[in-house]
Amino acid sequence: MAQSYAGRAALVLLSHPAMHRSRVNAALLGAVRARPDVTVHDLYKHYPDFVIDADAEQKKLLAHRLIVLQFPFYWYSTPALLKEWMDTVLLHGFAFGRGGDQLHGKTVMVAASTGGDPAAYHAEGYNRFTIAELLRPLEATAHLCGLTWAEPFIVHDAIHIDADEREKAAAAYDARLSALIEADRA
């Protein structure tokens, strides 16, 4: 039986290879999982073998106005399954290229956690680049697919923040999703 996404505005594509150890992504997910206007899709749960059903994933994308890529920022990139998902689902003729306008007008937002302190993400910092610069490949992908790029939601220093800070981050994430959903309805 096909799943109905009626009334759901946002699709959260969760890509965390070790959710059982996550504190920050678990808190973020906890803040939005029960929302009636959000579909949470855990890629590692659905595709542990990395064999992705492109047709089913494309249908999910078509059914939602807001697409959220939620993941821990590993080695200046996404986890491997999210990259595989992009390679498999965002196809020529669907997401870009001749006839590939199916995602035009939708919005995409990255919701990522980093292990580093915010000060590490600038030209003089440990990582030498801002988080915006490091996310450019995803922004370029959004542009190629005709998606509106929303400012990323980043939780830095995920390894060290305490429960109170995680709770505040989760509330801010929920508020950001609400604002994006409302802006789309306006």
Q: Can you describe what's shown?
A:
By secondary structure, the protein is of the alpha/beta class. 37% of the residues lie in helices and 16% in strands. The mean pLDDT is 94. Strands 1, 2, 3, 4, 5 and 6 form a six-stranded parallel beta sheet that branches. The protein is globular, with a radius of gyration of 16 Å.
Task: Please give a quick description of this structure.
With 186 residues, this protein is an alpha/beta fold.
Distance between the termini: 33 Å
- The gyration radius over C-alpha positions equals 16 Å
- Can you tell me the overall shape? globular
Q: List low-pLDDT spans.
A: none
CATH topology heading: Rossmann fold
Quaternary structure type:
single chain
Order of helices and strands: EHEHHEHEHHEEH
Assigned CATH class: Alpha Beta
Structural class: alpha/beta
Mean pLDDT: 94
Could you say what the CATH architecture is? 3-Layer(aba) Sandwich
Largest sheet: 6 strands, parallel
CATH superfamily: Flavodoxin domain
> Helical element count?
7
**Number of strand elements:** 6
Strand content: 15-25%
Helix content: 25-40%
Keywords: Oxidoreductase
Organism: Acidisoma silvae
GO molecular function: electron transfer activity; FMN binding; NAD(P)H dehydrogenase (quinone) activity
Pfam family, one: Flavodoxin_2
